[in-house]
Amino acid sequence: MTDALRLVMCSSPEFRDRLGQGLGETYRLEGVETSLELAERLEEERPAALLIDPERTDPSDDDMVRVAHQARPDLPIALIVSTRSSACYSYLQTYGLGAAIPADAPLSPRPLKAFLDHFIEPEPRFGLDPYFPPNRRIERRRIDTPVARGDVLKELVNEFRECDYIVSHDLQVIFEETLVNAISHAFRTERNIQKYEEDAEKAFDVHDEIHVEWAVDRDLAALSITDNQGLLAPRAVWERFSRHSSMEGLLDSRGRGLYLTHLLSRQILVTIAPGMRTQIAVFFAPGPVESEKPIGIRVATRSARTST
Prior knowledge:
The protein has two domains: about 70 residues, Rossmann fold (3-Layer(aba) Sandwich), CATH 3.40.50; about 180 residues, Heat Shock Protein 90 (2-Layer Sandwich), CATH 3.30.565.10. Strand 9 and strand 10 form a beta hairpin. Helix 2 packs parallel to helix 3, helix 4 runs antiparallel to helix 8 and helix 7 packs antiparallel against helix 9. It is an alpha/beta fold. The strands form two sheets. The protein has a seven-stranded mixed β-sheet with strand order 5-11-9-10-8-7-6, with helices on both faces. A four-stranded parallel β-sheet has the order 2-1-3-4, with helices on both faces. The protein has nine helices and eleven strands.
């Protein structure tokens, strides 16, 4: 489809040029400066997605996100804003959006493509297969008991050891935080009480599942943890990220693990099928993790709920 290659952007020319260099000829980038110009572009043809820098919009102009929602309600929109700032998560909550990319983030082709594919695809897919070539081996494990994660962690660390752009300690922290988050928060009793303790030896009930996947390549590695409950809510994530990024949530017991995972990785992409499953995919790539990074949360609505 030709429109799948078209991105409309309200951004600085410098960022648009950098993004174009990172994408090569995969996408056609078109800049707009006003909401009227945006409305005209959207009326002409539906683009693959819209990227908006809320800091560049004229206060006297109409809200570009509102204009886009009215013209193309199903159009994927990402904000161009620093994910270090609590303002980013306030914007995402206010607009009901699920993706942000900082203007000065490293734009390495493979992590960038993973981010764009995740928020542009009509229905996000689960699993790591969309992010790696068909011949790349993807390891898959099912966690049957909370304590069984130790064996999986040993395998994971051993396989990632040859990857010189991954810090082993950070990998262990990410695995523990993400998996414990799933164990502690995904599974609830009928009275909404936590069902499993993180260090319990008791096996999960047969209908409660946690799956782990990982893959390692020369310039991209990924780890995903998926539960079969789908209870995570995007708005709750942005609220917790806002608190942690503003330092207000230093003592909060919830949300800290996912925010720490965001800080220690190149990017995280979350996919939710409400009431069915939640996948947290964590990506690693060459370059400093301290740099700005994209983040994305997608909610599947149709066929993706059963696809892998």
